[in-house]
Specification:
Number of helices: 49
Strand order of the largest sheet: 2-3-4-1-5
Shape: globular
Radius of gyration: 34 Å
Distance between the termini: 66 Å
């Protein structure tokens, strides 16, 4: 392997011993798979190192697949993936049909609905792993920043999942580039400039006749950049190299290199320059397309005309893939600079005629070929934008719409397309500053369009993510909806999007009066509102009054969710599912949305998926995951331009902290929510903050404060209109009222639950309603009966915190009725559940009640762990000499259950036999 590196050429690899050693170690691990990123300044030698790696890998029996990011293909989805997978096209058929079809459609070899990016990613990974069975596979991707977003997302997904495979990934990018790769934890090696000695050696080996002072000047300007060292002298005349003529004045290095490249390209024949221009604009280097487009343009050129460019090391040919490869990205820029605008437009037109089976690429080339407004081309770009947006590439859709706007003959069409671009950008990408500029362009083009739905919706995102308030955003959107020319057509996508956004604004406000314009619009929709919008308008708005009537329709909507690929639709389904506790049906799809977001998908959808997972995690006891995802959500909000939604994640962190007794975090986060939400009129956030404080105060037994905060969401005895979060404090109102001797208020709230029928909305709400009724019962026998009915409901195990709260209340009631023996089991179950969740204040309440029954206080072992009451009882019986069977008979459990408990008890006590139990238990008492 070392010999192969040495044979690559001293001029290319001089001074690269450390880099080659790093890459050699990477290649030695080929059979284990993995990924490595090379970064460095332009011209530092990253491409040369990639070439060396490829040569060594092939010599060692690996198969190499290469691709390169192309500036002019950056908006063409999956163009980079097409490059790297094209040699494996014949193997597509070995994949399962859904994965084969996804690749066929994504790469332009087939037709059909745009595939979900996660499916394309998994299909790519499986294809590569399959191909690596015959021989190790090395993927090399140069110029990662210029890779189209869709390909970058897929290859980033693949690169992070190669450990343990026979596939390795090596990518290169300029230092400081923001890509889908360098933010994902992949190892990175930055290729440094050459040191002074190596730079002198390289320059002298290529240009030994340079005058000393000229050499020193070049070394100073190049600053160790190998490409500059190799290229700068070629721009000098013989007299200049010999110091017989003064060198030019100092210029920025990038300009100097660009000028050098242009001069090299300009010396080629016209036929060669035309072919290079076609190859540059086409992007993939496909020789068949290159030849066909040359004929279409009427060029009297043949691939043989590129021999001079190949000899001058501007390009090379990959015989395996039949593609032309530029040796450095600056060469592409130089090719474009060396040609006139007329030549560039002619090349784009020729490519558009050849790429008739690739509508998106064809539309883009037609757009670049046009200099005058052309509605036909603008329409094709607009259609392409819709297809691009449908597969989740919001950035590509915005670019296509902006170009379509530029080519629109009429100001109204230009303004309309700019407004739609602004909306897509604001709704999905987080590029709010760019959206603001697009809106201003739309306003200037057609001031009358300021009331359009897309204009208003984009403006809403700018308002709420800036310093604006909900009322202003609400008025703007309602005005646009009511003044629109849509005729309330339920098939009008812009109208339906606007109504979904209006629904969110109404919810954010926390005020009933803001919902009426939405309801009025829904009543006017023809032929009828879409099912998802209809459901969300009932279950997310005022579920106490309208949720039950929408459950059947919701179940129908959720039944198709597992196959849904639109991340926006999935997030909207989660919105409809939240307050009727159907997030379980949205969980797996939400994870798909989050994974897409992590791999570069739309950030607002990423945020939405995280919201619903966090809320479901809190309700179902996955509190550690809830905190992790909340941190991720906060980061995404801050980095993607959606600060408004941060409050959701503050709430998620705060409510877990409240249940766990972290009062400092509770105070910090609730104060932050209140300070942020109050001036903006985000009433829902204030309700959420009240819920957090209620949980914290109930846990520590401050029921007076708990009652005050819980009833701030609506007075006892009623559920405030359009305050759905009041459902989440229903039990708190009843319990706090009972504990503070407000028995009439407690009874009134139980009646309100029963009259509203909230138990029909979900098993969890049924548990809370029945538990509240039991808490308020004045007769002990009636209370016991009601608690048993509450705890006998099916499906309540999914909600461990709420279940444990009802069990705790049941045990407390039994103990106060002096049924100590009967109280121990619900108190024990509550205690163990709280301990598992880390809800220390609640566990302390349960432990206090247990001690009052005469049950031994749970003890902490030397390792810091706690034996549960049942574990302590089993350990005491085992230490007394009873067998598992005898213990089981006493406790009415199976002997297998006893064995399982002892399996957990032994390591907690630090023993490995029954004989050591007595001493270990005695030590706990000291």
């Amino acid at each position: 392997m070392g010999e192969l590196f040495e044979h690559t050429g001293v001029d290319l690899l001089v001074g690269r011993g450390v880099a080659l050693e790093r890459i050699r170690a990477f290649l030695d691990a080929t059979d284990r798979g993995g990924a490595l990123l090379l970064s460095g300044a332009a011209g530092v030698g990253k491409t040369v190192l990639l070439d060396a790696v490829a040569e060594v890998a092939v010599a060692n029996g690996s198969r190499v697949l290469r691709a390169s990011g192309v500036e002019f293909e950056a908006d063409v989805s999956y163009s980079g993936l097409n490059q790297i997978l094209f040699p494996l096209y014949e193997a597509f058929g070995d994949l399962e049909k859904p994965h084969a079809d996804a690749l066929q459609v994504a790469l332009g070899f087939g037709s059909g609905a745009p595939p979900e990016r996660l499916v394309v990613s998994n299909a790519t990974l499986m294809l590569l792993r399959s191909a690596a069975k015959a021989s190790p596979l090395l993927l090399i991707v140069d110029d990662l920043p210029w890779l189209d977003r869709a390909s970058a997302a897929v290859l980033g997904f693949v690169a992070r999942r190669l450990n343990g495979t026979r596939v390795t990934f090596l990518g290169a990018m300029r230092s400081g580039s923001e890509t889908f790769f360098n933010g994902g934890g992949l190892p990175e090696y930055e290729v440094p400039p050459l040191d002074g000695e190596s730079a002198q050696l390289l320059l002298h080996s290529r240009f030994p006749a340079l005058a000393a002072r000229v050499r020193q000047r070049l070394l100073s300007v190049a600053e160790g950049n190998p490409l500059a060292l190799l290229e700068l002298p070629t721009a000098l005349s013989g007299e200049q190299r010999s110091a017989l003529e003064t060198l030019p004045a100092v210029l920025p290095l990038s300009q100097r290199l660009q000028a050098l490249f242009v001069s090299r390209v300009s010396t080629l024949s016209l036929a060669a320059r035309r072919l290079l221009l076609l190859a540059t604009l086409e992007g993939t280097g496909d020789l068949a397309i290159l030849q066909a487009s040359a004929r279409q343009a009427g060029y009297e050129s043949d691939l043989e005309d590129l021999a001079s460019a190949e000899q001058d090391r501007l390009v090379s040919f990959d015989e395996g893939t039949r593609r032309l490869v530029f040796r450095h990205p600056l060469i592409r820029s130089a090719v474009v600079s060396a040609c006139t605008s007329t030549e560039r437009r002619a090349a784009h037109r020729a490519l558009a005629q050849v790429l008739v089976s690739h509508p998106e690429r064809r539309a883009w080339h037609l757009g670049e070929a046009s200099v005058e407004p052309d509605e036909q081309v603008a329409g094709l770009l607009e259609q392409a934008a819709r297809r691009i947006a449908a597969r989740g590439d919001a950035v590509g859709a915005v670019a296509a719409l902006v170009r379509a706007a530029d080519l629109s003959p009429h100001d109204t069409d230009r303004a309309r397309r700019l407004a739609e671009a602004a909306y897509i950008g604001a709704d999905a990408t987080g590029q709010l500053r760019n959206s603001s500029e697009l809106l201003e362009g739309a306003r200037l083009a057609d001031p009358g369009l300021m009331g359009s739905l897309h204009f208003a919706a984009a403006a809403v995102f700018l308002i709420i993510n800036g310093d604006g308030d909900i009322d202003t955003a609400h008025r703007l959107l309602v005005g646009a909806i009511e003044a629109g020319t849509h005729d309330y057509d339920a098939q009008d996508g812009a109208l339906i999007d606007a109504l979904h956004l209006l629904l969110l604004l109404c919810f954010f406000s926390g005020r009933a009066e803001l919902w009426e314009p939405l309801y009025a619009a829904l009543r006017r929709l023809r032929p009828e509102p879409p099912a998802l919008l209809s459901v969300a308008a009932k279950t997310f708005s005022d579920p106490v009054r309208s949720g039950a009537g929408a459950l059947n329709q919701l179940e129908s909507v959720l039944s198709d969710l597992q196959t849904e690929t639109d991340p926006g639709w999935i997030v909207r389904a989660g919105t409809g599912a939240l307050y009727v506790d159907r997030l379980a049906a949205v969980r797996e799809p939400s994870w798909r949305v989050v994974l897409q977001g992590r791999d570069g998908g739309p950030p607002r959808r990423h945020i939405g998926g995280l919201m619903h997972l966090c809320l479901d995690d809190y309700l179902t006891g996955r509190w550690d995951e809830c905190l992790e995802l909340a941190d991720e959500g906060i980061q995404v909000c801050q980095e993607s331009g959606y600060p408004f939604f941060t409050w959701y994640f503050w709430y998620c962190k705060a409510v877990v902290a409240a249940a766990r007794g972290d009062d400092e975090t509770v105070d910090c986060l609730t104060d932050r929510i209140v300070r942020w939400a109050t001036p903006r009129g985000v009433g829902a956030a204030l309700h959420y903050a009240r819920h957090v404080r209620t949980v914290a105060e109930s846990g520590r037994g401050d029921f007076e404060s708990a009652y005050r905060n819980a009833t701030a969401l609506g007075p006892a005895g009623t559920f405030a209109s359009h305050v759905p979060h009041a459902l989440w404090v229903a039990l708190d109102v009843a319990e706090a009222a009972v504990r503070t001797d407000r028995h009439s208020e407690a009874a009134a709230h139980v009646r309100a639950m029963q009259e509203a029928g909230i138990g029909a909305l979900s098993p969890r709400l049924g548990l809370l309603a029945a538990g509240s009724a039991a808490l308020c019962a004045t007769d002990d026998d009636e209370a016991v009966r009601r608690f048993e009915e509450a705890l006998d409901r099916p499906g309540i195990e999914r909600w461990p915190f709420d279940l444990a709260r009802v069990q705790l209340a049941y045990g407390e009631r039994l103990r106060r009725a002096r049924a100590n023996a009967d109280s121990r089991e619900p108190l024990r179950l509550a205690y163990e559940a709280f301990r598992l969740l880390g809800a220390e204040p609640w566990a302390d309440r349960a432990a206090k009640e247990l001690r009052a029954t005469g049950w031994g206080t749970p003890k902490t072992t030397a390792s810091g762990e706690v034996l549960t009451p049942q574990e302590r009882q089993i350990a005491d019986l085992a230490a007394s000499g009873l067998s598992n069977k005898q213990i089981a008979e006493r406790l009415y459990l199976s002997h297998r259950t006893i064995g399982a408990h002892l399996y957990q008890i032994f390591p907690k006590l630090g023993v490995n036999s029954r004989a050591a139990l007595r001493d270990a238990l005695a030590a706990l008492e000291k």
